[in-house]
Design brief:
alpha/beta; Rossmann fold
């Protein structure tokens, strides 16, 4: 039976759900401003063979606001969830921003993680420099009226448009510099990549983002592509949840094979 948790952390409270059970624990890391809902098809596809733990990082979904919405703060949210649930050596399954969180957490905690599934994220590419920062700020400024309207749908965070933009600028700078992080990861990592464009980035730009993985894949055999799917970045969990579930199973099999 799924257990609902409210987890105090720093100046806020995180909303989490834990299905329990004896299977390998899987901790799901949401997209940058998304809630837990998009993971439902993946959870249903994997079923009771796994213990599923979903949560909303600070200022997202049903979690509370925080004065610190930084990447480092969101990494610490993972630790808080693991402590509250008593989970050891989970699989981390992250989408977009969550995939970057998962890769960084795995690199820093090699003895505490079993493996990572990256859903169209954790790729060493980002919009940087003043031109990139201004592009991001303009995008969120244009969406400023929309963000509060889509927040109940789990499509934006409890942040202003300017805070959304700065959060996005930060993660772009982190991903642009993350090739060394990916090269050091010692656990199995499986990627599920979309092949179409994304809000704010067309097909050609997203192809360049995904191609940035190729040198890293060549240098670290722990990282492999599980699937490339037809959907775009935003639709991937809804349209290609079966591919994500297969990647989870492949990662678990690779973990078992390493023993």
């Amino acid at each position: 039976m799924t257990r609902h948790l409210r987890i105090p952390v720093a100046d806020t409270v995180l909303d989490a759900n834990d299905t329990g059970g004896p299977g390998r624990p899987v901790v799901y890391l949401n997209g940058g401003y998304a809630g837990q809902r998009p993971w439902r098809p993946v959870l249903a596809e994997l079923g009771a063979d796994y213990r599923h733990i979903t949560f909303d990082p600070r200022a997202r979904g049903k979690s509370g606001r925080s004065a610190d919405n930084s990447f480092e703060a969101c990494l610490s949210d993972i630790d808080a969830v693991l402590e509250a649930t008593g989970v050891e050596r989970p699989l981390l399954v992250g989408w977009s921003y969550g995939a970057t969180l998962g890769a960084h957490w795995a690199e820093r905690n090699p003895d505490r993680v079993a493996g990572v599934v990256s859903v169209d994220g954790a790729m060493p590419y980002g919009l940087t420099g003043e031109e990139g920062r201004e592009r991001i700020r303009r995008l969120f400024h244009r969406m400023r009226w929309l963000l509060p309207l889509v927040r109940p749908l789990g499509l934006s965070a409890k942040m202003t448009a300017a805070e959304h933009a700065e959060n996005n600028i930060e993660v772009n700078e982190i991903t642009a510099a993350m090739a060394p992080v990916l090269e050091r990861i010692a656990c199995p990592v499986r990627y599920v990549l979309a092949t179409s464009g994304n809000l704010g980035a067309g097909d050609e730009e997203m192809e360049a983002v995904r191609a940035s993985l190729d040198p890293v894949l060549a240098r670290n055999p722990n990282l492999q592509i599980s699937a490339k799917v037809d959907s775009n970045h935003s639709q991937i969990l809804r349209k290609d949840f079966r591919a994500v579930a297969r990647a989870v199973r492949e990662t678990e099999a690779a973990v078992v094979g390493q023993r």
